[in-house]
Design a protein that fits this description.
6 helices; 4-stranded antiparallel β-sheet
Length: 273
Protein backbone atom coordinates (compact mmCIF):
# COMPACT_ATOMS: atom_id res chain seq x y z
CA UNK A 1 0.00 0.00 0.00
CA UNK A 2 1.37 3.41 -1.00
CA UNK A 3 1.79 6.02 1.73
CA UNK A 4 -0.11 9.12 0.58
CA UNK A 5 0.33 11.14 3.74
CA UNK A 6 1.22 14.69 2.55
CA UNK A 7 0.89 16.48 5.89
CA UNK A 8 3.27 19.41 6.45
CA UNK A 9 6.48 18.72 8.35
CA UNK A 10 7.97 21.84 10.00
CA UNK A 11 11.58 22.53 9.04
CA UNK A 12 13.26 24.65 11.73
CA UNK A 13 16.13 25.51 9.40
CA UNK A 14 14.02 28.10 7.62
CA UNK A 15 14.30 30.33 10.68
CA UNK A 16 17.90 31.06 9.77
CA UNK A 17 17.12 32.14 6.21
CA UNK A 18 18.11 35.74 5.37
CA UNK A 19 15.93 38.02 3.29
CA UNK A 20 18.29 40.49 1.65
CA UNK A 21 17.33 44.16 1.47
CA UNK A 22 18.94 44.46 -1.98
CA UNK A 23 19.35 48.22 -1.80
CA UNK A 24 23.06 48.75 -2.23
CA UNK A 25 24.83 51.39 -4.33
CA UNK A 26 26.72 50.42 -7.47
CA UNK A 27 29.91 52.41 -8.13
CA UNK A 28 31.54 51.80 -11.50
CA UNK A 29 33.79 53.34 -14.14
CA UNK A 30 31.83 51.70 -16.96
CA UNK A 31 28.03 51.59 -17.04
CA UNK A 32 26.62 48.28 -18.31
CA UNK A 33 23.23 46.94 -19.31
CA UNK A 34 23.38 44.61 -16.29
CA UNK A 35 23.68 47.64 -14.00
CA UNK A 36 20.60 49.23 -15.56
CA UNK A 37 18.65 45.98 -15.37
CA UNK A 38 19.44 45.69 -11.64
CA UNK A 39 18.18 49.23 -11.15
CA UNK A 40 15.02 48.57 -13.14
CA UNK A 41 14.39 45.39 -11.15
CA UNK A 42 14.70 47.28 -7.87
CA UNK A 43 17.69 45.32 -6.55
CA UNK A 44 20.12 48.24 -6.62
CA UNK A 45 19.64 51.59 -4.89
CA UNK A 46 21.68 53.91 -7.07
CA UNK A 47 24.38 53.73 -9.74
CA UNK A 48 27.32 56.13 -9.64
CA UNK A 49 29.31 56.18 -12.88
CA UNK A 50 32.63 57.90 -12.30
CA UNK A 51 33.93 60.26 -15.01
CA UNK A 52 30.86 59.86 -17.19
CA UNK A 53 31.77 63.20 -18.79
CA UNK A 54 35.35 64.53 -18.83
CA UNK A 55 36.14 67.27 -16.33
CA UNK A 56 37.24 69.54 -19.21
CA UNK A 57 33.83 69.20 -20.86
CA UNK A 58 32.12 70.08 -17.58
CA UNK A 59 34.35 73.15 -17.20
CA UNK A 60 33.45 74.37 -20.71
CA UNK A 61 29.74 73.92 -19.98
CA UNK A 62 30.04 75.92 -16.74
CA UNK A 63 31.97 78.70 -18.47
CA UNK A 64 29.36 79.06 -21.22
CA UNK A 65 26.50 78.77 -18.75
CA UNK A 66 27.53 82.17 -17.37
CA UNK A 67 26.24 83.74 -20.59
CA UNK A 68 22.70 82.51 -19.96
CA UNK A 69 20.08 83.89 -17.65
CA UNK A 70 18.72 80.88 -15.81
CA UNK A 71 15.11 80.55 -14.77
CA UNK A 72 14.09 79.22 -11.39
CA UNK A 73 11.62 77.11 -9.54
CA UNK A 74 10.12 79.20 -6.78
CA UNK A 75 10.27 76.31 -4.38
CA UNK A 76 11.32 76.48 -0.78
CA UNK A 77 14.27 76.23 -1.08
CA UNK A 78 14.49 77.79 -4.59
CA UNK A 79 16.19 76.03 -7.49
CA UNK A 80 17.76 77.57 -10.64
CA UNK A 81 17.24 75.87 -14.01
CA UNK A 82 17.82 76.13 -17.74
CA UNK A 83 15.03 74.21 -19.46
CA UNK A 84 11.63 73.01 -18.33
CA UNK A 85 9.97 69.75 -17.39
CA UNK A 86 6.85 68.20 -18.87
CA UNK A 87 5.20 68.52 -15.46
CA UNK A 88 5.67 72.31 -15.62
CA UNK A 89 3.31 72.45 -18.63
CA UNK A 90 0.97 69.51 -18.00
CA UNK A 91 -2.25 71.23 -17.03
CA UNK A 92 -5.25 69.70 -18.78
CA UNK A 93 -4.00 66.22 -19.54
CA UNK A 94 -1.80 67.20 -22.48
CA UNK A 95 1.27 69.22 -23.39
CA UNK A 96 0.14 72.33 -25.26
CA UNK A 97 1.88 74.38 -28.00
CA UNK A 98 3.68 76.55 -25.43
CA UNK A 99 5.56 73.48 -24.16
CA UNK A 100 7.02 72.71 -27.60
CA UNK A 101 7.81 76.38 -28.28
CA UNK A 102 9.72 76.59 -25.00
CA UNK A 103 11.48 73.31 -25.78
CA UNK A 104 12.96 74.75 -29.00
CA UNK A 105 14.46 77.70 -27.10
CA UNK A 106 15.75 75.42 -24.32
CA UNK A 107 17.43 73.07 -26.82
CA UNK A 108 19.16 75.99 -28.56
CA UNK A 109 20.44 77.30 -25.21
CA UNK A 110 21.81 73.91 -24.15
CA UNK A 111 23.50 73.32 -27.50
CA UNK A 112 25.41 76.59 -27.05
CA UNK A 113 27.10 75.27 -23.90
CA UNK A 114 29.67 73.26 -25.91
CA UNK A 115 31.46 74.37 -29.05
CA UNK A 116 31.43 71.01 -30.82
CA UNK A 117 28.38 69.10 -29.55
CA UNK A 118 25.13 69.20 -27.65
CA UNK A 119 25.95 67.86 -24.15
CA UNK A 120 22.82 65.70 -24.36
CA UNK A 121 24.15 63.93 -27.45
CA UNK A 122 27.35 62.98 -25.61
CA UNK A 123 25.30 61.55 -22.75
CA UNK A 124 22.85 59.68 -25.01
CA UNK A 125 25.73 58.07 -26.93
CA UNK A 126 27.23 56.66 -23.72
CA UNK A 127 23.86 55.46 -22.43
CA UNK A 128 23.06 53.79 -25.76
CA UNK A 129 26.40 51.98 -25.69
CA UNK A 130 25.66 50.70 -22.17
CA UNK A 131 22.09 49.63 -23.03
CA UNK A 132 23.14 48.18 -26.41
CA UNK A 133 20.22 49.90 -28.07
CA UNK A 134 19.02 53.40 -28.91
CA UNK A 135 18.16 56.15 -26.48
CA UNK A 136 15.40 58.22 -28.07
CA UNK A 137 13.24 61.10 -26.93
CA UNK A 138 9.83 60.20 -25.58
CA UNK A 139 6.93 61.56 -27.63
CA UNK A 140 3.54 63.14 -26.99
CA UNK A 141 1.09 62.91 -29.90
CA UNK A 142 4.04 61.96 -32.07
CA UNK A 143 6.14 65.01 -31.16
CA UNK A 144 9.48 64.57 -29.34
CA UNK A 145 9.68 65.87 -25.80
CA UNK A 146 12.40 68.01 -24.31
CA UNK A 147 15.08 66.29 -22.23
CA UNK A 148 18.19 67.68 -20.57
CA UNK A 149 17.50 70.36 -17.96
CA UNK A 150 20.49 72.12 -16.42
CA UNK A 151 19.65 72.48 -12.71
CA UNK A 152 21.49 74.23 -9.90
CA UNK A 153 20.55 72.83 -6.50
CA UNK A 154 22.60 74.63 -3.85
CA UNK A 155 20.07 74.77 -1.04
CA UNK A 156 19.03 71.15 -1.17
CA UNK A 157 15.82 69.53 -2.36
CA UNK A 158 13.05 68.23 -0.14
CA UNK A 159 12.05 64.61 0.15
CA UNK A 160 9.91 63.83 -2.90
CA UNK A 161 9.30 61.29 -5.64
CA UNK A 162 8.93 61.54 -9.44
CA UNK A 163 6.69 59.18 -11.40
CA UNK A 164 5.45 60.09 -14.86
CA UNK A 165 2.56 57.59 -14.66
CA UNK A 166 1.11 59.38 -11.62
CA UNK A 167 2.08 62.99 -12.25
CA UNK A 168 1.39 63.15 -16.01
CA UNK A 169 -0.59 59.96 -16.73
CA UNK A 170 -1.60 60.81 -20.31
CA UNK A 171 1.49 62.78 -21.41
CA UNK A 172 3.61 60.11 -23.10
CA UNK A 173 2.60 58.12 -26.16
CA UNK A 174 4.41 55.07 -24.73
CA UNK A 175 4.34 54.91 -20.91
CA UNK A 176 7.43 53.29 -19.38
CA UNK A 177 7.29 50.18 -17.24
CA UNK A 178 10.26 51.41 -15.22
CA UNK A 179 11.75 54.86 -14.77
CA UNK A 180 15.26 56.15 -14.00
CA UNK A 181 16.47 59.59 -12.98
CA UNK A 182 19.75 60.57 -14.64
CA UNK A 183 21.96 63.36 -13.31
CA UNK A 184 25.44 64.14 -14.64
CA UNK A 185 27.19 66.57 -12.31
CA UNK A 186 28.77 69.52 -14.09
CA UNK A 187 29.85 71.32 -10.91
CA UNK A 188 30.13 70.06 -7.33
CA UNK A 189 31.11 71.82 -4.09
CA UNK A 190 33.97 70.73 -1.81
CA UNK A 191 31.47 69.14 0.61
CA UNK A 192 27.77 68.41 0.79
CA UNK A 193 25.28 67.97 -2.02
CA UNK A 194 24.74 64.24 -1.47
CA UNK A 195 21.89 62.50 -3.27
CA UNK A 196 19.84 60.51 -0.76
CA UNK A 197 17.58 57.69 -2.00
CA UNK A 198 15.09 55.89 0.27
CA UNK A 199 13.70 52.41 -0.27
CA UNK A 200 10.14 53.63 0.01
CA UNK A 201 7.58 54.59 -2.58
CA UNK A 202 4.60 56.91 -2.41
CA UNK A 203 1.41 55.73 -0.73
CA UNK A 204 -1.95 57.56 -0.90
CA UNK A 205 -1.83 58.20 2.84
CA UNK A 206 1.40 60.19 2.33
CA UNK A 207 -0.59 63.14 0.98
CA UNK A 208 -1.44 64.21 4.51
CA UNK A 209 2.31 64.67 5.07
CA UNK A 210 2.98 67.01 2.16
CA UNK A 211 5.51 69.81 2.68
CA UNK A 212 5.31 72.21 -0.27
CA UNK A 213 6.36 70.32 -3.40
CA UNK A 214 7.74 67.50 -1.24
CA UNK A 215 6.95 65.54 1.88
CA UNK A 216 7.86 65.58 5.55
CA UNK A 217 11.30 64.06 6.11
CA UNK A 218 10.06 61.63 8.77
CA UNK A 219 8.48 59.48 6.05
CA UNK A 220 11.99 58.11 5.52
CA UNK A 221 12.49 57.16 9.16
CA UNK A 222 13.39 53.51 9.62
CA UNK A 223 13.65 52.84 5.87
CA UNK A 224 16.81 51.58 4.09
CA UNK A 225 18.55 54.71 2.79
CA UNK A 226 21.59 55.32 0.59
CA UNK A 227 23.47 58.65 0.44
CA UNK A 228 25.96 59.06 -2.37
CA UNK A 229 28.15 62.04 -3.19
CA UNK A 230 29.25 62.44 -6.82
CA UNK A 231 32.29 64.33 -8.09
CA UNK A 232 32.46 66.57 -11.15
CA UNK A 233 31.74 64.49 -14.27
CA UNK A 234 30.06 61.67 -12.36
CA UNK A 235 26.61 60.42 -13.37
CA UNK A 236 24.04 59.23 -10.85
CA UNK A 237 21.10 57.01 -11.83
CA UNK A 238 18.32 55.82 -9.52
CA UNK A 239 14.63 54.96 -9.57
CA UNK A 240 12.89 58.29 -8.80
CA UNK A 241 9.70 56.50 -7.79
CA UNK A 242 11.59 55.95 -4.54
CA UNK A 243 11.53 58.96 -2.24
CA UNK A 244 14.73 60.98 -2.57
CA UNK A 245 16.24 64.31 -1.58
CA UNK A 246 19.41 66.40 -2.03
CA UNK A 247 21.49 67.68 0.86
CA UNK A 248 22.28 71.43 0.88
CA UNK A 249 25.77 72.82 0.38
CA UNK A 250 27.63 75.50 2.32
CA UNK A 251 29.78 76.88 -0.51
CA UNK A 252 30.35 76.52 -4.22
CA UNK A 253 27.81 75.33 -6.80
CA UNK A 254 26.01 72.06 -7.48
CA UNK A 255 24.98 71.92 -11.16
CA UNK A 256 23.76 68.91 -13.10
CA UNK A 257 22.40 67.88 -16.50
CA UNK A 258 19.21 66.01 -15.65
CA UNK A 259 16.42 64.03 -17.29
CA UNK A 260 14.38 60.85 -16.91
CA UNK A 261 14.85 57.56 -18.73
CA UNK A 262 12.10 55.05 -19.34
CA UNK A 263 12.33 51.32 -19.97
CA UNK A 264 9.49 50.30 -22.27
CA UNK A 265 8.28 46.98 -23.60
CA UNK A 266 10.36 47.56 -26.74
CA UNK A 267 14.14 47.83 -27.05
CA UNK A 268 15.17 51.50 -26.87
CA UNK A 269 15.25 53.63 -23.78
CA UNK A 270 13.14 56.80 -23.95
CA UNK A 271 14.04 60.12 -22.33
CA UNK A 272 12.22 63.24 -21.14
CA UNK A 273 12.48 65.97 -18.52
Amino acid sequence: MTNTDTSFVYDASVESMTVHTLFDPVVTDQLTRADLVRLAAGVAAVIRVRNFLPVEVCAEIMENLERHKMGRYDFTPPMAKLGSAAYDHYKTGELGPEYFEQAEADIAARRSLLADADPLDLVFDKLAAAWDDEVTLATANGRPLFAGIIREINNGARLHFDEIARECPTALDVPPVSQFAFNCHIAMPPTGGEAVVVRRRWRPSDEQHRDGYGYQSYLADGEPTVAIRPEVGDAILFDPRNFHRVEPIAEGRRVSLSFFLGVTGAGPLIAWS
